[in-house]
Design a protein that fits this description.
With 676 residues, the chain is α/β, with parallel strands linked by helices. Helices cover 29% and strands 20% of the residues. The chain folds into three domains: 4-150 and 221-381, TIM Barrel (Alpha-Beta Barrel), CATH 3.20.20.80; 390-594, Class I glutamine amidotransferase (GATase) domain (Rossmann fold); 607-663, Golgi alpha-mannosidase II (Immunoglobulin-like), CATH 2.60.40.1180.
C-alpha cells in the first residue's frame, strides 16, 4: 500500500451530488485513505435511539468502490444537542463550579456514566454495522482527547476520583501519607471527604493536584478504552487508534501508547515561526519512540493556513511538501490533512483544506496532487524504521509536577526546556529518540535529561546503571528533586542522582526575569565562556569536577557545569540554563566522548538528514529547511527516488524547501537532525 495519503472527510457538510466529485478528485490527488465520521453523531442518531446510517453506508460504499481506505471514526467527540438537553449532567464543570455549555465540541465530562453509556451504545451500532466492510481499514476513537475539556470538577468526577484513589492507595492512611496532609491540617478520615482540587483560597495541596492530573488523564483514557473494548470484540483484527496532539499536557502519550495499535498525531507547523521544524522534529521523534520505533501516523496537518492562531499565515510554496516529508523521514507511515474539502460554514471555515474554497485551479490543490504522486512513487518506505544512539528523556508525571504553583520559580516551562535540549542534537544532525525515564537505555550511547524534577528512585537507578555500564549522561538543573508524590527526596538535592553526578546542591538561586550571569572556565583551559539565565544553583562537588563556573553574581566562583567519572561512563550536570551556543558546545563535547556521529557528516546549515530502513530498502532523506539552495556531499552514490530515471550521484542539490529521498543505485523503490 505504501505511505497512506488523504485527510478528514466530512461529506455530511455537503449535498450528495458533491460526493461523486469528491471521489473523482481524490483519485486525481492520489488519495489512499480518509478519516470519516469524526463529528457525525448527530447525523447518524438525530434523536435518541433513532438511527440513520443510510447516508454513511453510501459514503463508505463510494470509498470502497474508489479503492480508498477508511479510517472510521467512532463519532463520539461531540455529543448531539438532544443528549445534553436530556442529560445536562453530562456537561463538564470548571474548578470554579461553572458549567461548560454545548455549542462547540467536547462538551462532556469524561467521568460521566451517562455520556459513556450513550457513547458505547453508538459504537456498538457502528461496529456491528460496518464489521467486514471493504472500506474499513482502521478505527479512529474519539478525537483529540483533552483538547478542550482537559479536566472536569463536577460531582461525577469527584466520585470517580475517589474510586481511583481507593484503587491507587488502598487506605486513607496511605493517601494521607502520599499527600503530606499533616501540613495545613488536611488529614482525611474517609475517602468520602476527598474532593477534586477545586478553586480554593490559596495554593491547593500539590500532591492532590498532581494526582488529579493523573486521574484526569486516566478518565479520558477510560473513555477511549470503553469504546476500544467494543471494537476489539466486534471487529477483531482491525487496528484501533486515536489522534494525540503535540506536547499536549493533559494526555500522557507514553501512558496511552500501549493502548494504541499505532501512534497517531495532529501537528500544525506554524509558517510564521522560522524554525518550527525543530519543534516538529522533537514531536515526531517522540511519536516514533513511544512504541519502540514503530512507524506512526500523521493524521492531521494543514494544507495552508489554520483558523485558530491570532494571525493565520498560509504555508508558502513548498512548505507543505517539505514538512510532510519531514514527518515521513522521522517515521510517519501516513500523511493526512484536516480536511479534504474546505467548509463553507462553522468555526473552521477559514481553516485550509486539500480542496480549497477556490477549487482545483489553485496552488494548494496542485501541491496536494504532486505530494500524493510523490508518496505513491516510493511504497517501499512503509514499515521502515530508524535507529538512534542518543535518547532524550521526557516524562508527563514530572511535567505535571514541575509546573504546579508554590515552586522556586514559575518560569520553568517543561516543553520549552525539553526543546532547548533537543535543538543542539537536531542541529548537529544527530538521530535522537525521545523516551520516558522507565525506558530501556542499554542500547544508547548518550542520554540527555532536561529538568526532570520528579524522578523515582527506580528510574534514578536506571540512569546510574546506564552510566556505570559506559554511557554518557547529561542532566540539567532542578532534576531528581521529588518522588512520585511530590515529596522531596530525603538527603541533599538531587538525592537519587547525587552519587552518579558526584555532587550535591545546597541551594536554588532562580534568576530574576531578564537577568543573566556570565559562565567561564572551570578546572581546565579552553572551557566555553558565555552567559546563562533563568536558574542557578549552589553546587558542592563530591567527586565531580567543574568544567564551567559562574564568574559573576552571588555564586561567582562556584560550579555551573560539572563532569563526573562513574563506573565505565561519565555524567555531566548543568546547574543553569546555558545560552544556546554554550549548550550546543557542551552536547557536542559529550557526543564526541560517547562516539555519537551525525546521520551524515558535513551537512550544510538548515539541512536535515534522516534514515529509514526496512524490507523495502534503505532510504536517506534530505530536507532543506533553509532559505537558499545548497549542495550536499554523499558518502556513497545514491539516486533520488522522487526523480524518474535519476542516476546515482555523490552530490545532491537542494533548492530552498527542497527534498530528496535517496536509495541505493540498484533499487527501483524504496530520524535524524539538521546540520548547522
Amino acid at each position: 500500500m505504501g505511505i497512506r495519503f488523504g485527510g478528514d472527510y466530512n461529506p455530511e457538510q455537503w449535498p450528495e451530488e458533491v460526493w461523486a466529485e469528491d471521489l473523482a478528485l481524490m483519485k486525481a490527488a492520489h488519495v489512499t485513505m480518509v478519516t470519516a465520521g469524526i463529528f457525525s453523531w448527530a447525523k447518524v442518531e438525530p434523536r435518541p435511539g433513532e438511527w440513520d446510517f443510510g447516508w454513511f453506508d453510501r459514503v463508505l460504499d463510494g470509498l470502497a468502490g474508489a479503492g480508498i481506505e477508511g479510517c472510521l471514526a467512532t463519532m463520539t467527540a461531540s455529543p448531539p444537542p438532544w443528549l445534553t438537553h436530556a442529560h445536562p449532567e453530562v456537561l463538564p464543570q470548571g474548578p470554579d463550579g461553572q458549567r461548560r455549555w454545548p455549542g462547540a465540541r467536547q462538551h462532556f465530562c469524561p467521568s460521566s456514566p451517562v455520556y459513556r453509556a450513550y457513547a458505547v451504545r453508538l459504537v456498538e451500532r457502528l461496529a456491528a454495522r460496518y464489521a467486514g466492510h471493504p472500506a474499513l481499514a482502521m478505527w479512529h476513537v474519539g478525537n483529540e482527547y483533552g483538547c478542550h475539556t482537559r479536566q472536569c470538577f463536577c460531582d461525577a468526577s469527584a466520585e470517580d476520583f475517589r474510586r481511583w484513589l481507593r484503587e491507587r492507595y488502598g487506605s486513607v492512611d496511605a493517601l494521607n501519607d502520599a499527600w503530606s496532609t499533616a501540613f495545613w491540617s488536611q488529614g482525611y478520615g474517609d475517602f468520602a471527604e476527598v474532593l477534586p482540587p477545586r478553586a480554593a483560597p490559596t495554593f491547593p495541596n500539590p500532591a492532590q493536584q498532581l494526582d488529579y492530573l493523573r486521574f484526569s488523564d486516566r478518565a479520558l483514557r477510560e473513555c477511549y478504552l470503553a469504546e476500544r473494548e467494543v471494537l476489539d470484540r466486534v471487529t477483531p483484527g482491525v487496528p484501533v487508534t486515536t489522534n494525540l496532539m503535540p506536547q499536549h499536557k493533559p494526555v500522557d502519550a507514553f501512558g496511552w501508547a500501549p493502548h494504541l495499535d499505532a501512534m497517531a498525531l495532529d501537528f500544525y507547523q506554524d509558517p510564521q515561526v522560522a524554525d518550527d521544524h525543530v519543534r516538529a522534529g522533537y514531536v515526531f521523534d517522540l511519536m516514533r519512540s513511544a512504541r519502540g520505533g514503530q512507524p506512526w501516523l500523521l493524521v492531521e496537518q494543514a494544507a495552508g493556513a489554520v483558523n485558530w492562531r491570532p494571525r493565520n499565515g498560509p504555508k508558502p510554496p513548498g512548505a507543505m511538501r517539505l514538512w510532510s516529508w519531514q514527518a515521513v523521514a522521522q517515521g510517519a507511515d501516513a500523511v493526512l490533512f484536516f480536511q479534504w474539502r474546505q467548509s463553507r460554514g462553522g468555526a473552521e471555515k477559514f481553516h485550509s483544506a486539500m480542496l480549497p474554497h477556490a477549487g482545483t485551479d489553485t496552488r494548494i490543490f496542485r501541491e496536494v496532487c504532486e505530494l500524493g504522486r510523490e508518496l505513491a512513487a516510493v511504497p517501499g518506505i512503509e514499515g521502515a524504521r530508524s535507529k538512534a544512539s542518543v535518547a532524550l528523556l521526557a516524562d508527563w508525571q514530572s511535567w505535571w509536577a514541575l509546573e504546579l504553583d508554590s515552586r522556586p520559580s514559575t518560569a520553568l516551562d517543561h516543553s520549552r526546556i525539553a526543546l532547548e535540549h533537543y535543538r543542539p542534537l537536531f542541529e548537529a544532525g544527530v538521530a535522537c529518540d525521545v523516551v520516558p525515564p522507565r525506558a530501556e537505555l542499554a542500547g544508547y550511547r548518550m542520554v540527555v535529561v532536561p529538568n526532570l524534577y520528579l524522578l523515582t528512585a527506580e528510574d534514578a537507578e536506571r540512569l546510574a546503571a546506564f552510566v556505570r555500564g559506559g554511557g554518557r549522561l547529561v542532566v540539567s538543573f532542578f532534576s531528581g528533586i521529588v518522588d512520585a508524590c511530590d515529596r522531596v527526596h530525603p538527603g541533599a538535592y538531587p538525592a537519587p542522582l547525587r552519587e552518579v553526578l558526584g555532587l550535591r546542591v545546597a541551594e536554588f538561586w532562580p534568576l530574576a526575569q531578564g537577568r543573566s550571569v556570565a559562565v567561564g572556565d572551570g578546572d581546565r583551559d579552553g572551557a566555553p565562556a558565555g552567559r546563562a539565565d533563568l536558574w542557578s544553583e549552589e553546587i558542592v562537588l563530591e567527586g565531580a569536577r567543574a568544567v564551567a563556573r559562574f564568574v559573576e553574581g552571588e555564586l561567582a566562583g562556584g560550579p555551573a557545569v560539572t563532569r563526573h567519572a562513574y563506573g565505565r561512563g561519565e555524567a555531566w550536570y548543568v546547574g543553569t540554563r546555558l545560552e544556546p551556543a554554550l549548550l550546543r558546545a557542551l552536547l557536542d563535547e559529550v557526543r564526541a566522548a560517547a562516539g555519537v556521529a551525525p546521520v551524515l557528516p558535513g551537512l550544510p546549515a538548515g539541512v536535515q538528514a534522516a534514515v529509514r530502513e526496512g524490507a523495502g530498502g534503505r532510504y536517506v532523506f534530505l530536507l532543506n529547511h533553509g532559505s537558499g539552495p545548497v549542495e550536499v556531499e554523499l558518502p556513497e552514490p545514491l539516486r533520488d527516488a522522487l526523480v524518474p530515471r535519476a542516476a546515482a550521484v555523490t552530490r545532491v542539490g537542494l533548492a530552498a524547501r527542497g527534498v530528496a529521498v535517496l536509495t541505493g543505485p540498484g533499487r527501483q523503490e524504496g530520524g535524524g537532525g539538521a546540520g548547522a
